[in-house]
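Can anyone check this?
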Amino acid sequence: MIKIKILNQDEEVQSFYYIHIHDEMKDIKNIDTSLGKETRINSCLELARLQNNLYNNKILPKFLHNNILATEANIEFVRQAYYKDYPSRFSCIFAVADLETLNLIKTKYNWDTPVKKIIPSSKAKIIKCDMNWIDFLRTAPPYNQDHYIYYLAGIDFKEAFPELNIIPIYEYLIEGYCEIVDI
């Protein structure tokens, strides 16, 4: 049996992960996030460009400017520049390794969605990242490319900011064919 490694870690892929299921996915039994990937990515980037143009031209007020979309676009630009083979946040499934992490996330973000298992195929691409970077990047001062690289490279937030003593919250970005099953 061939052991598959996570792309950005010296760690083997688990046989399954846990995901939150939103209403539009509740009856889906399998998914292939690599299908139509480029269209989804380009559409999201175009939306981010449009938002920034409207904001920079003083058409879109600051309170309507979505920093989440801008952050996600910056992550995608860095991914395309340095990590082309990695899953895109615009076209992947976000999963966690265990129910403890899933419950931590549910509490932290006040999510009340059903949970299922996801079983990635042997050809799926997977990276492991510390979610604390996402919270930081969405509220951080001006753009610092290194922080986006740290996230995609799988560097724990606490390695960059040890004085904050923040516990890593790992998410797995999965691209490719996966089965979705009930727990």
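Reply from J.R.: I decoded it. The chain has a mean pLDDT of 91.
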